[in-house]
Amino acid sequence: MRLNVGCGRFRAQGWVNIDNDPNVIADHVADLTNLPPQIRNVQAVYLGHVLHLIPPDDAIKVLARLWERCLPGAQVAAVGPDALRLLDTGIDLIKVHEHLGGKDRRWACTQARLADIIRASGLQRTRPVLIDSDDLQGFPVVSRVSWQCAARGHVR
């Protein structure tokens, strides 16, 4: 099973799509704190613009519980809006988040911080990766705009 957490309106074919918004077409209406029991033996996890919406300590805890449902060696990729790159580009962060559904950020996502949070949750070989790199090939990345950051890792 490949898990696309926070799919929003972008369902990924061949993935189990999860979102906590009942207005989007997902396979499961759920979030990281209430995953359905049938989510298990996960081979890959994609977290697109999800983690910065959860307080960091909570994100570490729910990710650690998610890894328990994954097979050893499962591939993980996380993508988020890089606050530093957004500042550099002059993009209005408030408008970006209104476009993404008006969700509130819980912490300033940067490439280093994103990698630190998923590393703290217990992933092995966690590393920042470039949003436009081949490191994200095979994951359902919707957009590869320059103001995003990404990290990869493997479940133990």
Question: How would you briefly describe this protein structure?
Answer:
The protein contains 4 helices and 7 strands; from the N terminus they run ββββαβαααββ. The protein has helices at 56-67, 83-89, 93-99, 111-120; strands at residues 2-5, 16-19, 28-29, 42-48, 70-81, 124-129, 148-154. By secondary structure, the chain is an alpha/beta fold.
From the alpha carbons, calculate the radius of gyration and give it in angstroms.
14 Å
Which segments are poorly predicted (pLDDT under 50) over 5 or more consecutive residues?
A: none
* Helix count from the secondary structure assignment: 4
Q: Which structural class is indicated by helix and strand composition? A: alpha/beta
Strand-residue proportion: 25-35%
What are the SSEs and their pairings?
Layout: E1 2-5, E2 16-19, E3 28-29, E4 42-48, H1 56-67, E5 70-81, H2 83-89, H3 93-99, H4 111-120, E6 124-129, E7 148-154
Parallel strand pairs: 1-2, 1-4, 2-3, 4-5
Antiparallel strand pairs: 5-7, 6-7
Would you kindly provide a written description of the structure presented here, covering whatever features stand out?
It is a single chain. The model has no long low-confidence stretch (mean pLDDT 90). The protein contains four helices and seven strands. With 156 residues, the protein is of the alpha/beta class. The chain has a seven-stranded mixed β-sheet with strand order 3-2-1-4-5-7-6. It is 23% helix and 27% strand.
